[in-house]
Amino acid sequence: MTEQQRVFLAKSDVKANDLEHKRKIAFNIDKYNDSVVKGKQQFDNLDIARRKAKNIKWKTIEHLDQYLEQFEKNFTSRGGKVIWAETAEDAQQAILQICREKNTKQVVKAKSMVTEEIHLNKFLGDNGIESVETDLGEYIQQLDGEAPYHIVTPAMHKSKEDVARVFFEKLGTEPNLTPNEITSIARQKLRQKYITAEVGITGGNFLLADVGGVCVTENEGNARLSTSFPKTHIAIVGIEKMLPSINDLHLFWPLLATFGTGQQVTVYNTIFTGPRKESETDGPEEMYVIILDNGRTNLLRKEVRESMYCIRCGSCLNACPVYKNIGGHAYGATYSGPIGAVITPHLEGMSEFKHLSYASSLCGNCTEVCPLKINIHEMLLENRAIAVTENLNGFSENSGWKLWKMAMLNRSIMNMGGQKMKGKLVNSIFKDSWVKHRSDIQFADKSFNAMWKERR
């Protein structure tokens, strides 16, 4: 058992039995589900919209190399600069070099999962640069010293009382503040950061090949502030975020909004095509786009290729019975939930994270709710098969499955020892998992096989 698997099991054990934690998650996900039902009503034919979106992403990924080069050509033609980062370290060093060239000691950062993936805040902090999260949920998590809990709603696991406690402990505010008061204080704190920061950092929801644009969608306006006041804007985006054309946004922006938060469209939708022109009064003087691989080309293998279609709406997390029981932090990875269980082993290493693909009931609800109809649960099975073919499961696990297969194919072996002996054996084997929080498994006095023989 790897260290990552031990941590996962330990955290899952705690959260699955934390009733208050489950209450908060159920409350927030129920609100989300109600909103999504309303948001879907904007589509005349949702099924066709989802199929069309999937076809567009299929086309994009099949010709990804061409679209990436087209994006670079069009973006640089407007004065922007593109940096190719093969690894997280390449991206970190590129950002650090830009910050040092600008002689900045502080950056403001909009919500971005890819910057969480490369642990940018810690890296900049270790190099004497303060990185301030400006999304309210991310800001709360940063104050509390926690990673985002959810792809879309970083502080989903916190109640308003929890947030008030964080502000009281970290900012010295009055205890028991209302949500409006908390938001007002956060606004006051962050406004000064926008003005004094020399560099603003964002992610990107989509890259547009035909116009060389970076799309950022948000609800708070913090990304626009992070790119308007600072003189330098750095956008770091994974290669899978590519779309062929600006004309695809009329489909993808509503899908992302509806399946992400239940809105018809998010409040602020911005396309950045480069730095400020001479005739323009707003925007950064310089703009860089860091295009990140960091293991994403591993996802191009045929078994999990569809995972590259993901638009990071988070709907599969909200639908997953496992996620709703153990929460986002138990996964021990940047991307949690079903889609995280698919991609993390390929981004971080199959040997360390193969266990995530087993953290699923395979109910298929993740596939059902995905706006692009990605076959998530089937790819979880593919990951399991990859782990087997690459001989990553170890002697004890392989032996266990061989014995199980042998017993399942041989009725006489299954009948050995009688029903009571079966109960003792099963309860002994699963004493640290199933039996730990439940009563012992009790087998019937007679098996169906025995009763069938008597009937005949």
Describe this structure in words.
With 456 residues, the protein is an alpha/beta fold. It is built from 22 helices and ten strands. It has helices spanning 3-16, 19-39, 46-62, 64-76, 88-101, 113-117, 120-126, 136-144, 160-171, 179-196, 222-228, 249-261, 315-319, 323-326, 337-348, 350-353, 365-369, 376-389, 394-408, 411-414, 418-429, 448-455, and strands at residues 81-85, 106-109, 130-133, 199-202, 206-208, 213-218, 232-238, 242-243, 268-272, 286-292. The strands form two sheets. The chain has a six-stranded parallel sheet, sandwiched between helices. A four-stranded mixed sheet has the order 8-5-6-9. β5 and β6 (213-218) form a beta hairpin. The longest helix has 21 residues, at 19-39. The model has no long low-confidence stretch (mean pLDDT 94).
Describe how the helices and strands are arranged:
Layout: H1 3-16, H2 19-39, H3 46-62, H4 64-76, E1 81-85, H5 88-101, E2 106-109, H6 113-117, H7 120-126, E3 130-133, H8 136-144, H9 160-171, H10 179-196, E4 199-202, E5 206-208, E6 213-218, H11 222-228, E7 232-238, E8 242-243, H12 249-261, E9 268-272, E10 286-292, H13 315-319, H14 323-326, H15 337-348, H16 350-353, H17 365-369, H18 376-389, H19 394-408, H20 411-414, H21 418-429, H22 448-455
Parallel strand pairs: 1-10, 2-3, 2-4, 4-7, 5-8, 7-10
Antiparallel strand pairs: 5-6, 6-9
Helix pairs in contact: 2-12, 15-18
**Span of the ends, CA to CA:** 47 Å
What count of helical segments does DSSP give?
A: 22
Question: What low-confidence regions span 5 or more consecutive residues with pLDDT below 50?
Answer: none
Mean pLDDT: 94
Return the CATH topology of one domain. Rossmann fold
In what range is the share of β-strand residues? 5-15%
The gyration radius over C-alpha positions equals 25 Å
CATH architecture designation of one domain = 3-Layer(aba) Sandwich
Main beta-sheet strand count, sense and barrel state? 6 strands, parallel
Assembly type: single chain
The largest sheet has its strands arranged as: 1-10-7-4-2-3
Shape: globular
The overall strand count is 10
Given helix and strand content, the structural type is alpha/beta
CATH superfamily of one domain: NagB/RpiA/CoA transferase-like
Considering DSSP H and I runs of 4 or more, what fraction of the residues is helical? 40-55%
- CATH class of one domain, named Alpha Beta
